[in-house]
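new request in #modeling-help
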Amino acid sequence: MSTAPRLTALDTLHRSLGATMTDFAGWDMPLRYASERDEHNAVRTKAGLFDLSHMGEITLTGPEAVKALDYALVGNISTVGVGRARYTHICQEDGGIVDDLIVYRLGETEFMVVANASNAQVVLDALTERAAGFDTVVRDDRDAYALLAVQGPESPGILASLTDADLDGLKYYAGLPGTVAGVPALIARTGYTGEDGFELFVSPEHAVELWQALTKAGEGVGLVPAGLSCRDTLRLEAGMPLYGHELTTSLTPFDAGLGRVVKFEKEGDFVGRAALEAAAERAAGNPPRKLVGLIAEGRRVPRAGFPVVAGGEVIGEVTSGAPSPTLGKPIAMAYVDAAHAAPGTSGVGVDIRGTHEPYEVVALPFYKRQK
Amino acid sequence: MSNPQQLRYSKEHEWLSTAEDGVATVGITEFAATALGDVVYAQLPEVGDTVTAGETCGELESTKSVSDLYSPVTGEVVEANQDVVDDPALVNTAPFEGGWLFKVRVAEEPADLLSADEYAKLTAGN
């Protein structure tokens, strides 16, 4: 694309903080402010503040919004209570994953769907088309929200100092409307880091004010601005898939080891049902490849697309790889042939620019926080 | 960021010290280190290797990518910085000092090495 990148409401602020910016799905986003390793470690041990305004919000309202979502998505949206959220997928008729999503039920007849930036338009188009027969309105709210995330063990304390909202009552994957630092916000206990944390959906005109208030509130407890680079290593350690890497239109949720998000028991038909039933059977009986974790014995870093090898044969492909700050070793997620997918399988390596580097096969995730 | 005046620079963002007894030190610039992000792995040329100006002689791996290391001069490697192999973050924290990469007995220098001011102009606006 030759068009100018889109800027978030916090763009000037990122530049004043000296951020290294990167193009992400047509947006100019902060990659890191200083050391991405320090940012990563801050989120694991203290707190990090992210601008995620590139994420795509789509709102469905109306008496049949819930029916429309049950038809359009693979999850059972009817069972999501008001004020709760659900991780789900939207699939093609052939079962291929269009995107992974979080659906927030804001009211009995109001839902907010959050799509990946790179897929927001495709998801909006699909939802609009799939909702056409239902009494619901699909609204493009991409420009209606800035999204700030506070992630890490100190985040509840930081947020509590700025809001009267009942954070103790706000469980993981729940969201409630409230006021943070005087700014109206949808406060959600969600994230993509493997840590406790919050995502705050606010009007873009309030984004700078909220960022500054959070920065000040986090000053004494080690909150740092955090970029997309550490977001990627945080989610990788937490074993969370990323669209375009672990999830693509050529894979079903069952291929990706996420069959649990597909709810066949829900009422009525949904897009992809027949293909997904076949995919479920295939995955249970004779899975082609499985998603596994790999930990390096050496120091060279596997990258997306590198072949996974055993006995001189290619047995899989790396989908994401990075040096893990928490483990101190390179790690990767990879799809490998089922015969080599069991944790502890020996003789597995990654072809790193012609050299077969030894890797240990492990179960995901690499990192789980202590609760 | 300031580039030391006494060094010379390649367009591939390596720096080269003035040779003493024919041996010069090579590293990457602060500009390059910042662009790379946290360096996590350094594969340096080995003692005795012949390096050629403008050709790759190793690699530097950071969180997001791997980059080839180019030699700014032609000559024979006489030392590789083991401190950087053990702690690659030195490349980020002290690119012009403790984060040097290797020492080379210079056989031939290309004519197009840049002064600190010329290098600053090359990287301005980035």
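bot summary: Residues 35 and 119 of chain B are 15 Å apart (CA to CA).
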